[in-house]
Amino acid sequence: MPSFAHRSYQKELLDGNDVSFAHIKQNMQELDRINQLLGGHKTTLQGASKLLKKGTATQPASIIEIGCGGGDNLRVIKNWCFKKGLNVHLTGIDINPNCIAFAQSRSQNKGIEFICSDYSNVVFNATPNIIFSSLFCHHFTNAQMVPMLQWMKQNTITGFFINDLHRHPFAYYSIKLFTRLLSRSSLVKNDAPLSVQRSFIKKDWYELFHSAGIHHFSASWKWAFRWLVVYSHQR
Predict the structure, then answer these.
(1) Which residues of 34-64 are buried (b: 16+ CB within 10 A; e: fewer)?
(2) At what angle do helices 186-197 and 169-182 cross, to 10 degrees?
(3) Using 50, 70 and 90 to split pLDDT, how confident is the model at 235?
(4) What is the pLDDT of residues 130-143, one digit of tens each?
(5) Is the pTM of this model over 0.90?
(6) Nearest 5°: phi and psi at 116?
(7) Measured between alpha carbons, how far is 73 from 156 in angstroms, rounded to an integer?
(8) Nearest alpha carbon to residue 96 among 73, 110, 114
C-alpha cells in the first residue's frame, strides 16, 4: 500500500517531453469527461464565482488559466459567464505545444486565447483580474509551488484560485479502479492515481501559503476529493 503521509514526487507520464499529440488528445478528452463526472468543473466554477463580480463590466474581466491543457476549464467558464451576462476575456497558458494545439483545434474553445509558454515567462499587456489553475499544482514540488503562489498574487488585480486534488487512500483506489475500467488512455491510467499521491492535504496548503508569505486565504474541501483554494486582494 502506498504511503499518503507525504506528497509523492514521482513524475507523471504527462510531464515527459516525448508524449505524442494523439496521446495528449486522448488524455485531455478523458480528463474533461472525468472533470464533468466527478465535480472538477463544478469546483472551477465555484472558484470563478467567488472572485467575479455579478453583472456585465464595462471592460471585460481578464481570466488566465495556467497549465490549461485542452482548455476545458476555460470553456466551462466561458459558457457559465455567457449565461450570467458576465463580460470576460479568457486566456489559457500551457508549456506543452501539443496541449495548446489540441485546445486551439476544439470548436468549443472559440473566442479563447491560448499561449504556449512557461507561465512565469508570459508578459501581460495589462494585469489580469484573476489567475487560476486546475490539476496543475500537484505537478510541482513544494519548493516550486512557493514562487508560483507569489507570482499569482503579484500578477492579479482581484485574486487567484486553485482547484486540485486531496491526497487520500479512498481517492487513490477509487480513481485507480475507475480509470482501469473506463479509460483507454495509458496516460490517464498511470497518472490519475499518481496525481492523488502527488496532491495535497489541508495542512500542506497552510504550510505552502505561509512559506509564500500569503495570508487570509481559504481552503475548502469539495466533492469528489478536491480542494478549492482562494485568495482575494479585496477583503
Answers:
(1) bbeebbbbbbbbbbbebbbeeeeeeeebbbb
(2) 180
(3) low
(4) 999 999 999 999 99
(5) yes
(6) -95, 105
(7) 19
(8) 114
